[in-house]
Specification:
- With 352 residues, the protein is an all-beta fold.
- The protein has a domain of 243 residues: Distorted Sandwich (Beta-galactosidase, Chain A, domain 5).
- Helix content is 2%, strand content 39%.
- The strands form seven sheets. Strands 11-12-13-14-27-23-22-17-20 form a nine-stranded antiparallel sheet, with no helix packed on it. Strands 1-2-3-4-5 form a five-stranded antiparallel sheet.
- Strand 4 and strand 5 form a beta hairpin.
Length: 352
């Protein structure tokens, strides 16, 4: 199927390439080279009506100005590192502290702020973005080569694959940061959409949203999504259980996924009962950060001039656990020369 290519704009004095992937069933994904990000995804509902179910903006200037990470590939280290400090093989490193005293999503000039090179393969219906992160960027050691590839198939599967190598020991924990709203971007909040998370445990956080090192059972807590329930069912109780809620509240926590060690395993299933749209997500990563957009508000104007709101969308950031470099019992995010970082996300879309 033909892949549409266009110019989305300019950033850092470079053209930002855009692409549209389509399949035979009316699904489409719009991608741009700024942050190797997804800016739109169109999915029909049970009545055949399509909707763009991804939050984002209409122009490059808005993406450059935002700190929301809409649709981006984030890194080198997605999520948070306490005080931006960690050790690899006895050597201490200090990286950018861009969220208070802590590091978040690669720093002020992380992967989401780069204009990636791009190429398309129509025979496979894929778009591939590549970039180089030099030694010392944002304080991280080693030169990293990273690619993010998107593929849309006729069985309504979107595959996102992030692959990387390094020439010196470093951290690599890239995350994909699309915000989803199955009712359609700008359609209001997502609290009535129904979620299943394939996880028996989660990692509590402190008041700076940094993991404490504990791994606790979800049983009997607001974090129990082992059976499908509305996202908003227990969301208002979070401020009462000491789970690290800054202004805005909601979920912004890591779940420890079941089935780790067997390649791709189930991560999440989410359905919008009203439209019938849904998807299942599989990954090969051990954790997922589920974030409900509690810090969004009407000042964020999305596509087609639609103002967003609190809980306007949610992310599933498959990952190594947050602050993993500082807890030996968390899955390692260290990458050594000769190793291949290979992070996979497989979304299967459906109607109910």
């Amino acid at each position: 199927m033909r892949i549409e290519k266009f110019k989305f704009g300019e950033a850092d004095g470079k053209d930002v390439d855009g692409f549209v992937l389509r399949n035979a069933n009316g699904l489409s994904a719009t991608l741009i080279g700024y942050g190797a990000r997804m800016t739109a995804f169109n999915l029909p509902g049970r009545d055949g009506t399509p909707a763009d179910i991804v939050l984002g903006f209409d122009d490059i200037e808005s993406y450059v100005a935002t700190n929301t990470y809409f649709g981006a590939t984030c890194g080198r280290y997605g999520n948070r590192i306490r005080n931006g400090r960690f050790e690899i093989d006895g050597q201490q490193f200090q990286v950018d502290r861009n969220e208070g005293s802590n590091h978040l999503h690669g720093g002020r000039n992380g992967f989401d702020r780069k204009v990636w090179d791009s190429s398309a393969d129509e025979s496979a219906n894929t778009v591939r973005f590549i970039m180089t992160s030099p030694d010392g960027e944002e304080g991280f050691p080693g030169t990293v080569q990273l690619s993010t590839t998107y593929r849309l198939s006729d069985d309504n599967v979107l595959t996102i694959r992030m692959r990387g190598t390094t020439d010196a020991p470093t951290l690599l924990n890239a995350v994909h940061h699309t915000y989803w709203n199955l009712a359609g971007q700008g359609a209001g909040d997502v609290r009535n959409q129904e979620l299943t998370l394939f996880s028996d445990f989660y990692t509590p956080v402190d008041d700076e949203l940094i993991t404490t090192g504990e791994v606790l059972s979800v049983a009997g807590t607001a974090f129990d999504f082992r059976s499908a329930k509305p996202i908003g069912k227990d969301i208002d109780t979070l401020n009462d259980v000491g789970t690290g809620n800054l202004v805005g509240g909601g979920y912004d926590h890591n779940w420890c996924l079941n089935g780790v060690g067997r390649g791709l395993h189930p991560c999440a299933r989410v359905v919008d009962p009203k439209s019938g749209r849904g998807f299942e997500l599989h990954t090969n990563e051990p954790g997922v950060q589920f974030y409900t957009g509690g810090y969004l508000d009407e000042k964020v104007i999305g596509k087609r001039s639609k103002p967003y709101c609190r809980f306007a969308g949610y992310t599933f950031e498959t990952q190594r656990f947050p602050n993993s470099p500082n807890f030996a019992h968390f899955p390692s995010s260290v990458l050594y020369p000769g190793e291949d970082y290979d992070h996979q996300m497989v979304f299967r879309f459906f109607n109910v």
